[in-house]
Amino acid sequence: MELIFDGITKAFWLLVHGDPEVIEITLLSLGVSLIATIISLIIGISIGTFLGLTRFKGGLIVRSLINTGMGSPPVVVGLIVSVFLWRSGPLGALKLIYTPWAIVIAQCLISLPIIIGFTMASIQQIDNKLRLQILALGASRWQLLWILIKDTRLPLLAAVMAGFGSIISEVGAAMMVGGNIAGETRVLTTAIVLANSRGDFGLAIALGVILMVLVYLVNLGLTAIQQRSKPL
Amino acid sequence: MNNKYPSNAAPVLQVKGLTTILGGRKIIDISELNVWPNETLMIIGPNGSGKTTLLLSMALLLKPSTGIIKYHGVKIDNARQILAQRRRIAVVLQEPLLLNSSVMDNVTLGLKLRKVPRPMIHERAIKWLERFGVDHLAKRQARTLSGGEARRVSLARAFALEPEILFLDEPFIALDSPTKQALLEDFEDVIHETKSTVVMVTHDRNEALTLGERVAVIMNGTIRQYGTTDEIFTSPVDEEIANFVEAGNILRGIITAQENGLAVLNVNGVNIQVATDLPVGTETTGYMHYDDVTLYVNEPAAASSARNHLKGYITRIISAGAQIKVFVDCGFKLVALITRRSWQELGLEVGMEIQAVFKATSIHLIPRHTAEADY
To answer: What sign results for the dihedral spanned by CA atoms B233, B239, B245, B250?
Structure first.
């Protein structure tokens, strides 16, 4: 019990005093996850909308691959990205391995299938007649896409939440491609793993609390938007 | 109604040789159809006849398999022209299809897409919401509206675009009777006020009669008859159309006498006088509207100018909305549509003996070979 009590006390002091290491890790974690979320949203919503609207040969295979991707183990994604970015690997010349950008790339690949899948599903459930009606109002193809995305904002918010959630809480890939280098690629999750393995439970708990609060705040914001746009 | 086409105007829209093939089946095959300025063209036909496919093709929302669509004499065939022309017309589909935003946003969306100057957008939206009596709903979320309200908003949204042609696909379907009647009246007023060019698909004969100036009857994907509303409803070219537009009593018989345009038609052994030039021996089918038959319990007091007075008895009386349908057996089946008031005044009952009276000119005849051409 003393161990837990000590851990919580230390965590409290770390948080209250604004420990520079904790702040640095938190900011890096937030930055990496936000960039990865934004990139995968832009790519994922575009691909998801396209797949949701068009029918083509092999569509079934592409769609089932994406559904598989939604549940793909992040460790495998981390492995693939590592192999590609390794100094002697195909993209080694970019010198990205063990940099925050490597983490961004891995996290994008992890959340892309999730965002594509959610977008595809929400676009597909749109009545084809609504699409005709929007075209009839005078929308160009791009305007149609934009209006459809706006109109399905509720299911799309779920995509954003799920995407961000999977990114910020991901640990395996971040460890493999980032290397958990202090002050460079140490993010909340990898720092918790390290602190935990060192027996530094105070730091681990403090970082864990921050991670939970961050995830909660993001979801609070998104849920608030969702509730506001709900019919009265 | 003599001039079938306005002489001094060019059609707004011309359709030529239009076919749409889906899954190897020809859905529509329209050799020619024109839409003239300021007219109300009704496209009527049974379910599955291809009405909606034709309407969507005309409104440039469905790419036909073959054929030419011309607006103002210019063939529309590339994506740029399609988008530009779509922004000059408006379409109301079977469902209101409002977007998940406020009523106001729904009505202004099309105006924004068409780059109507900003200060005018709000003004126009309010004007048309007011015209359809739903301006008080402007701030409401569109998906919370009742069926009738949503329908009014979707009409306001279309009229706010001030389209060259307004296309409507059964816009009054699935509304309860009073709601539909009120909306139909408002709609009729608006199209008369605005002199809009309207193309509307319906399978409802009353809507076509109330709103239509010209009617195209479509069956199995082809236009079977095109003409003024009067022509279609009084002179259907064949039996199928007559049945569809419910032209009324169908009298099948043979001409047994002919004298200067007044002939005798023998229907099931009963002689009826009809106005026709058809020669003796012609097998023919005649149509007569239900409300052209008058019923008398006794001999008509004043000498009626009507030539046909048939004795019979009532076999059935059924309610037909505000009116009453009386089925009479006078050697053949005859139906009369009378008001509830005259039903009560006459005290009609099933089994009662009665006189059915109608004019020789009330019967529209078509030679049997035409009627049977499609069987």
So the answer is: positive
Amino acid at A94: L
What is the CATH classification number for the domain harbouring A52?
A: 1.10.3720.10
Calpha distance B303→A25 (Å, rounded):
107
For residues A135 and A143, give the distance between their C-alpha atoms in angstroms, rounded to a whole number: 9
pLDDT for residue B197 is more than 90: yes
pLDDT, residue B6, reads 56
Kindly provide the ipTM of the predicted complex, given to two decimals. 0.75
Spacing of C-alpha B30 from chain mean position: 18
Residue of chain B minimizing CA distance to A130:
B97
- CB atoms A135 and B113 under 8 Å: no
The three-class DSSP label of residue B39 is coil
Q: Round to whole Å and give the CA distance between B278 and B261.
A: 8
State which residue of chain B sits closest to A128, comparing Cα positions.
Answer: B97
- Nearest Cβ partner of A132 from B90, B93, B157? B93
Domains of chain B in sequence order:
13-243 (3.40.50.300), 249-371 (2.40.50.100)
DSSP B248-271: -EEEEEEEEEEETTEEEEEETTEE
- What pLDDT digit, counting tens, does each position of A129-188 carry? 999 999 999 999 889 988 988 887 767 777 788 888 889 889 989 999 999 998 889 999
Calculate the average pLDDT of chain B.
88
Q: How many residues does chain A have?
A: 232
pTM of the prediction? 0.71
Burial environment of residue A48 by CB neighbours within 10 A (0 to 12, 13 to 18, 19 or more): buried
| B274-293 residues touching A, CB cutoff 8 A | none
> Looking at the 3D structure of chain A, how many domains does it have?
1
A68 touching B (Cβ < 8 Å): no
**Residue B42 near residue B27 (C-beta atoms within 8 A):** no
pLDDT, position B370: 40
Q: Mind telling me how many Å the CA of A71 is from chain B's nearest CA?
A: 31
> What pLDDT digit, counting tens, does each position of B26-44 carry?
899 999 999 999 999 999 9
Which structural domain range is residue A192 located in?
A: 2-228
Decide: B129 and B135 in contact? Cβ < 8 Å: yes
Indicate yes or no: CB of A136 within 8 angstroms of CB of B91: yes
- The torsion of the CA quartet B36, B39, B40, B44, rounded to 10 degrees, works out to -40
Whether B173 and chain A come into contact, CB under 8 Å, resolves to no
Are A138 and B87 a contacting pair at CB < 8 A? yes
Nearest by CB to A231, from B89, B90, B143: name it. Answer: B143
DSSP H or E stretch at residue B69: strand B66-71
Angle at A139 between CA A136 and CA A142, to 5 degrees: 140
Q: Which of A49-63, B1-15, B78-92, B166-180 is modeled with the greatest confidence?
A: B78-92
Is B108 in contact with B73 (CB distance < 8 Å)?
no
CB pairs A-B closer than 8 Å: 57
Average pLDDT, chain A: 87
Distance CA B264, CA B307 (A): 11
Backbone angles phi, psi at B317, to 5 degrees: -130, 120
Helices (H), B8-73: 51-58
C-alpha A160/C-alpha A41 separation (Å) is 7
pLDDT of residue A140: 93
